Amino acid sequence: MSNTSTNATTIEWTPLAMIFTLATILSILFNGLLMVVFIYDHSLRTPFNVYLINLLIANLLCSIVQNPLEIINTISSNFWLGPQVCTLYQYAGYILQASVSGAHILIAVNRTWAVTHPISYRSIHSQVVAIALCLGTSISSSNPIFFW
Q1: Does the chain have fewer CB atoms within 10 Å around its N or its C terminus?
Q2: What is the value of pTM for the model shown?
Q3: Which residues, other chains included, contact 107 with Cβ-Cβ below 8 Å and sequence gap of 6+?
Q4: How many CB atoms lie within 10 A of CB 28?
Q5: How many CA atoms lie within 13 A of 105 on its CB side?
Q6: Model confidence over 107-118: pLDDT tens digits?
Q7: Are 71 and 21 in contact (CB under 8 A)?
Q8: Which residues contact 19 (CB under 8 A, 6 or more apart)?
Q9: Binning pLDDT at 50, 70 and 90, where does residue 79 land?
Q10: pLDDT of residue 8
């Protein structure tokens, strides 16, 4: 018996990894399809749908950036892509999940505003306001100062 250790990576496709891979593929497919629908059908560009597009973008980025790295992390015995990619994976996880949460919060706040103050909602809320709120939420959720 020797005291040497190896850094060999073993890959094991567990049922969880297969389900996660299928979910990632379907997420990219359906979120991408909905984005194409919103891009090509101009009648769908309403102020409320700006929030849905914001959520689609956040979900699509999660599916493209974070999920493949999560699959690699799930199937391999160690993270063999290096410390820089590991740091990117962790940072992207925080930022992208915060963006998805922010998009859900914006939809909830928008619906609450529409129900509780319908007159101000109709007079103030526009596509420009919706875009500004989405951009503000995205900037604030991507700022690491808010995670401390």
Answers
A1: N
A2: 0.82
A3: 51, 52, 55
A4: 17
A5: 12
A6: 999 999 999 999
A7: yes
A8: none
A9: confident
A10: 62
